[in-house]
Specification:
The complex is a heterodimer of chains A (115) and B (117). Chain A has strands at 5-7, 10-13, 19-24, 31-37, 44-50, 53-56, 65-68, 75-79, 88-95, 105-106, 110-114. Chain A is mainly beta and 115 residues long. In chain A, strands 2, 4, 5, 6, 9, 10 and 11 form a seven-stranded mixed sheet that branches. In chain A, strands 1-3-8-7 form a four-stranded antiparallel sheet, with no helix packed on it. In chain A, a hairpin with a 6-residue loop joins strand 7 (65-68) and strand 8 (75-79). By secondary structure, chain B is mainly beta. Helix content of chain B is 0%, strand content 50%. Chain B has strands at residues 4-5, 10-14, 19-21, 24-25, 32-39, 46-52, 60-61, 64-69, 74-79, 88-96, 106-107, 111-116. In chain B, strands 2, 5, 6, 10, 11 and 12 form a six-stranded mixed sheet that branches. Chain B has a four-stranded antiparallel sheet with strand order 3-9-8-7, with no helix packed on it. A two-stranded antiparallel ribbon of chain B has the order 1-4. Chain B starts with a strand and ends with a strand. The chains are: A mainly beta (115), B mainly beta (117). Chain A binds chain B through residues 3, 31, 33, 40-45, 48, 55-56, 58-59, 89, 91, 93, 99-100, 102-109, 111, and chain B through 4, 33, 35, 37, 42-47, 50, 91, 93, 95, 101-110.
Chain lengths: 115, 117
Amino acid sequence: GAGVSQSPRYKVAKRGQDVALRCDPISGHVSLFWYQQALGQGPEFLTYFQNEAQLDKSGLPSDRFFAERPEGSVSTLKIQRTQQEDSAVYLCASSPRDRVGEKLFFGSGTQLSVL
Amino acid sequence: AQKITQTQPGMFVQEKEAVTLDCTYDTSDQSYGLFWYKQPSSGEMIFLIYQGSYDEQNATEGRYSLNFQKARKSANLVISASQLGDSAMYFCAMREDSNFGNEKLTFGTGTRLTIIP
């Protein structure tokens, strides 16, 4: 596809369930990011990959959050034992270079609601 | 202290008028980048414009320009000749470059812009 694709678009989970959110970056893009956007707020950084290497995971809020990009393309953000405070939009972004420079390409996000 | 401050939660502007969205930032880094992104109701963040801290001229991209005042730590977005399609949330963001390998952006809380026909 032409842009960054995220699935599912919407996810409803019961508290305590595990969820997996998928990101398909633009083909060939080296850098990949995950951001969390709470309602009415700006996005907050979660983690960053350069190819398959996770170079920065300082934004992951707890050890319940785990991200991977095993082949340097598709990435999955996994949240274990979901809590209500995990409800947010999860945005994925990619960039063609290893040094991000000026521009990120964002997907439309996955809206997670934890009941 | 907030790294990025956007003091205008919402703005209403008449179509075809120019609009300025405010952004101030806080950093002790000498090297940094400033960004503006647009987020329509579809949710996708769309890159608008970038300004590097060492760029001497204000960045421009079509109808968008960034009014960069380094001493004031201000990076306001100016949209000329506003259009109905400009109605969206606008986010200012910063990347601090002093730590090698730091690629994360810090975003403000955004300004909701509504263009009135």
